[in-house]
Amino acid sequence: MVRTRLTPELHGMTLPESSARPMDVAIVGAGIVGLATAIALRRHGHHVRIFEASQINTEIGAGVGLQRNAVRILERFGYCRENLKPVDYDGIVVFDAKTGVSVTHPWLVPRNDETPDLFCLRSDLHDELKRLATGEGEGPPAQVLLDTKVVACDPETGTITLRSGEICQADVVIGADGVHSTVRISILGRETKAPGSGWSCFRCLFDASGAEEIPELAWLSGGINGARNVAWREDGPFRMFFIYKCRSGAIVNFVGFYTDPKQSEPGEYRLSLIVFTTESCILAGWTPVTTRGEILETFQSFHPKFLRIFDLPIASPLMKWQLRVTPILPTWIRGRAALLGDAAHGTLPLLGQGLAMGLEDAATLGCLFPLGTTKENVPIRLGAYQTLRKERGEYVNTESVAQATQEKRGTYIRFTEAFQGGFHFPFIIPPFHETMGVLISGLKQSWPPKSKFSVDDIPDLSGQVMIVTGGGSGIGKETVKALLQHNAKVYVAARSPENAKAAIEDLKFQTGKQAEFLHLDLADLHAVKRAANEFMEKETRLHVLFNNGGVMACPVEQVTSQNYDLQFGTNVLGHFYFTTLLLPTLIATATPGNPARVVNTSSLASEIAGANIDYNTLKDGPARKKKSTNFLYAQSKFGNVVFSNELFRRYGDKGVISVALNPGNLRSNLQRHLRGLQAIIVNSILFPTPLGALTQLWAGTTDVGKTFGGKYLIPWAREGESPSTDPAAEKALWTWCEEQVANI
């Protein structure tokens, strides 16, 4: 029997392994991203050659932080964590450079021991990737050709020209040759300069072995494993240390940032921080270009205890780097050639995602070029690569650069004290108190298994009346579509008549069935009451109420018509009032063995919000304004679960069951308020919207769904552990909600 490996099909290509021809791949540049690409492609059986200009293929000894999206890719590549000699990256301790006062900010999501963030040396990471690319493993080992500089590339024919004059043919050419990319010149037809950012930095490595003997350096080791951010908060030029240990704690990586408006000057050798190629190291000769005295003068206003770090033995040259960035490119591809990593989107290190973006580029190419890809399909698949990666890479590029400008700093990932407390992302300077909690929690979510339930399993719903709040878009619209296809009478309850009616027309075109419109503004309790009355004037039965609508991550200053926090007021209180007004109809509809159902859409955020509701934050006031939009969103999603459980406790014996659920990471209008890197990465891990409807359709339409009262469901169509387990707290929220709507 011939074994066939099925792969994602593009233009109908899937071939048995025994007959599939491997591609010849030419990768220009044997840095971290070039090696990662070689790993991704050799695993499919392709023949990979890496052309490296330097005579010795090593990386400089600078440290690097790997967040979980990067670590997951390394895990898929089969890396050995011990070979990186890492230090866990559990959070950051932020110091005031003048006073020495510190605040510890651990990651806001419980640590995943299988995929922790880490710090390591670039050289150790490079060695491990070289092992995976060229050593034993799945597929033929990649060849690294040293002292083989590529001077030209013909993207249309897939040929590269070497410094020796030799011309090499390949099916696909990958430009992983950094910010000074030769392949980029060939793809664009011109040279692209990397302008200065206005920032420079000093960097070096210290031997940490003597740190414990210097009492003033206790700040370096005390507390959590992670980075030390020492920032100048007073007036004057921006200055900051970013320091962390690596090489199993034996080495301290030091970076000292400062404002530097100068561009490169005649006779002065300035490198971009993002240029970590061996060739650049050779050109520079690795002779120190700065001194302790110059660094100490730049940071002389810092508290003396922070300057004692320069009493440690120096383990590398003292280097001075000007931060430069690759401008946004019109294209990353042409013919049979593509750019990735710094060649495509080199940026500043201010969001900690530059290297991770390169690894994601490499992994994406690995997914798009399985064994059996034909030479003719290469340009099409490179087009798919650009579609998947360019927008994401450019967002990280643009928003990293924005952090270098004082007036823009913090405008892209500004989320105050997310969830419980707060977190300063390394390069977002107080007093902004920024966080990346939601971003990191998104990266941490597992991928659900394939659903055993599909819309084809929905029974005939003829004669049943249903309401879907937020039914005009996103998973609400997908839910309405499936219900119409199975003959239910469905009311699309939405705030915008124009948008809802447009959705209804579109659904009619798709299904041939007509949904009804119900004008419902969940942010106005009077409007909620009008909507419930309007429905009850038209219908005497209600079989299923899908409490699906909501808002997410909206600006903190936004409130409801009755001055409640917009997210809690809409997501919880509005739905509470709407549901309780419709309870008589729900109870009247229920029959023995056929309960009426209330399906409450929550979120994974409910599971990280904590087990309490801060009632001081539910109406506008000082306590609420101290919280972030992400805390308020997570609290509202937890409130959905609390309400759902209490509803079933009170009315389950009257024939009304209530269930809460996390629909999954989905593309919908809920993300419209997200900005910056949070938007980039959160959106990158989202699943197609139709998948999000599966779990609530499973709960609201199937026979097994009749048994889900008081339960909490997770994607896709599975039972999970409820984040709310305190009946007293559930009763307290119900009582609070009753008090708020008593006089409406």
From TrEMBL:
GO molecular function: FAD binding; monooxygenase activity
Keywords on record: FAD, Flavoprotein, Monooxygenase, Oxidoreductase
Pfam families with a match to the protein in the record: adh_short (PF00106), FAD_binding_3 (PF01494)
Top-rank taxon, per record: Eukaryota
Record-annotated FAD-binding domain positions: 23-209, 329-396
PANTHER family referenced in this protein's UniProt entry, alphabetically: FAD-BINDING DOMAIN-CONTAINING PROTEIN, MONOOXYGENASE
Similarity-based family: Belongs to the paxM FAD-dependent monooxygenase family.
Name of the protein in its database record: NAD P-binding protein
